[in-house]
Amino acid sequence: xxxxxxxxxxxxKPGASVKxxxxxxxxxxxxxxxxxxxxxxxxxxxxxxxxNPHSGSTVFAQSFQGRVAVTRDTSTATVYLEVSRLTxxxxxxxxxxxxxxxxxxxxWGQGTLxxxxx
Amino acid sequence: DIQMTQSPSSLSASVGDxxxxxxxxxxxxxxxxNWYQQKPGKAPKLLIYSASSLHIGVPSRFxxxxxxxxxxxxxxxxxxxxxxxxxxxxxxxxxLTFGGGTKVEIK
Lengths: 118, 107
What we know:
heterodimer, A: 118 residues, mainly beta, 7-stranded mixed sheet, 11 strands, 51% strand, B: 107 residues, 3-stranded antiparallel sheet, 0% helix, globular
């Protein structure tokens, strides 16, 4: 079965960077894009961007461009999200999620809580 | 960017009720419209994709309809496990965008 397993919770200071991992299993890793979606505490869902695991190409929402990087390791079927220059506004749960038919997000990781606090 | 507006933002309903949630897009697009359910502390789950196609394992009491700029999610007979927050999302163009959510609470 399709599974996306994310790394554990992180606590970071303002100005630092965080790297979250997402390990895929149960399907052809290079056949499906992976999205990253953020959810601030008590708020809705915000799409950050996606990566094509086959080519490594990425697309980001404008609000994250220049501060976010997404990479992949095809040997381990793992995608990584790195967010730099963290502020308290970056506190939230970060989800990796597979892009399915018609670009719907069909399977989600369990989420990784990132807390930015001095 | 395509803006997605859901209504209502919250509703109270009883088990067995028929519930309808609407989603309006700021511009027209083909049926690249999806619906998700999220329970507290959990990741969202895909319910409906392409406006009206049921995702694997989703009960048939959930249905979606609409086209152009106006879309609807219907729960034909609300069950206890359906109390959650529901989001619409367009996957027609990047950035992908979500509606603000509709919280379905127990009356």
